[in-house]
Amino acid sequence: MWQNLGGVAKSTMNLTIRPAQQTDVENIVKLIQSLSLLDNGRTSPLSTDVFIRDSFGDTPAFCTMLAEENGLLAGYAFYYWGYDTHTATRGVYLVDLYVVENHRRCGVGTRLMNAVSRATRESGGRWIFWSVLKRNKAARSFYRQLATELEDVLVCAAVDGDFDRLAGAQ
Q1: Three-state secondary structure call for residue 136
Q2: Which of 86, 67, 63, 87 is nearest to 75 (CA)?
């Protein structure tokens, strides 16, 4: 596949999409740190040890799909399983989709989303949900090409002090 990037043709023919392995963790964590800095100006506390424990242990908390081009990491999709009682179906929640800057607008993100969708369907899943920062116009534009942006759903989050108060409630 060839994409035109402002007059520069870029090939994604050598792109490989595959599940992450333990040998990939150090490079994935570096990308996660980059995304965290972009999104909120601080680094994530996710370390290689925590990633290995939570992804490759007896009960994995999440899955990671990688995009590589010529052996170099071009992006990743980070997701975990969920369940929807309204439809009685399994699916995944996409936590992060990140494409390295020099690989953007070349189909890498779409190929990662395709791979996550296929893996979800092959494991009995029927949906993918994700959230995106309202201010991230480029990401919102990309995601609108893939699926409908829901207008009647709000994402709520109990974190830090809110979580502590909620967890302490009887």
Answers
A1: coil
A2: 67
